[in-house]
Amino acid sequence: MLVRPTIACVVPCHNEEAAVGKVVCDLRAALPEAGIYVYDNASTDRTVEVAREAGAIVRQEPRKGKGNVIRRAFADIDADALLLIDGDDTYDASRAREMVDLLFEGPYDQVVGARRETVSGAYRAGHAVGNKLLTGAVRSLFGNDVTDMLSGYRVLSRRFVKSFPALSREFETETEMTVHALHLRLPMAEVVVHYRVRPAGSKSKLRTYRDGRRILWVIFNLARRERPSLVHTVTAGLLALVSLVLGIPVITDFIRTGTVPRFPTAVLAAAIMTIAALVLLVGYILESITHMRQEQSRLVHLAYPAPLRSPHHTGQRTGVGPVPIRKASSNSRPH
Fold it and tell me: CA 166, CA 272: separation in Å to the nearest integer?
């Protein structure tokens, strides 16, 4: 007997009274069997009342920041498929059925809604450039299976949710999700979705430069934690280069005269080279620890079954754009 999979929709909100009602109604139309949870993040307007009137289950997360909402929701909700969508009505919620079906059909652990503008100005120029730069940095460090790293429209499997640590506090959480999937080589797919302007009365909480700096810092910390040998090798190489720049003239003087006239410089060069060697050694030790931690995450991931095929799958797709636009390699699919 085919078991009906459970589906949950999580809508993080902070002062979204102008848009959250429509988002909930659109999700209800696309996924009538899903539980829709609006997580209010310290709103000061009528977000809670509007969400309840639209039929959503409203929960509170008083600690401000989208990462805090995701951390709370992932701990609270248990579902075969968990859909994340922002409460500002910039994403096309009517594509939710298609994305959920694709997750079960794969099966995939993550389906990302890759954004495409429907009208000029929906995607601010600073955000578009920043997204490209940050996505390029993550692709260079962790893999080439993502084109929109910062999309807030995703469908995740149960095993993704339960193996994801959710350490970020604010808008860096999408970066953390992307790196988690890439580093564990989880099967992923992307679906092109329309991205539109916010409705009147809804204001963006993003700050291009502030959030960009924060995400760059998160990428650096993720690289330091997930690729320690690379980070420490580069750091050790730079230190070794400084040591050589300082030490080669001292060695040249010693070969020519048999004396060391710049003894403090010689000591400094030797000390920096010693530090470089220690940094390199620490990098390899941390790489071994990281490998063990990845094994543990993988075992947690494998403790849950692959997503079941949706009984609502019809074999047809709706909407516009090629689907999916990029998939993980076949050897990363679960068995």
Answer: 37
Query: In sequence order, what DSSP letters do the residues of 7-36 get, joined into one string?
Result: EEEEEEESS-TTTHHHHHHHHHHH-TTSEE
Close Cβ partners of 323 (under 8 Å, ≥ 6 residues apart):
98, 102, 189, 191, 192, 317
3-state secondary structure of 129: helix
Pairing state between β 154-157 and 81-84: antiparallel
pLDDT beneath 70: ranges in the chain: 1-3, 118-131, 144-145, 198-212, 215, 309-335
What is the Cα–Cα distance from 93 to 34, expressed in whole angstroms?
13
The mean pLDDT value of the chain amounts to 83
pLDDT at residue 306, as a whole number: 86
Q: In what order do the strands lie in the sheet with 7-13?
A: 57-60, 35-40, 7-13, 81-84, 154-157, 110-117, 188-195
Burial class (CB in 10 A: 0-12, 13-18, 19+), 103: buried
Q: How many CB atoms lie within 10 A of CB 227?
A: 19
Kindly report the pTM of this predicted structure: 0.75
**C-alpha dihedral sign at 56, 61, 65, 68:** negative
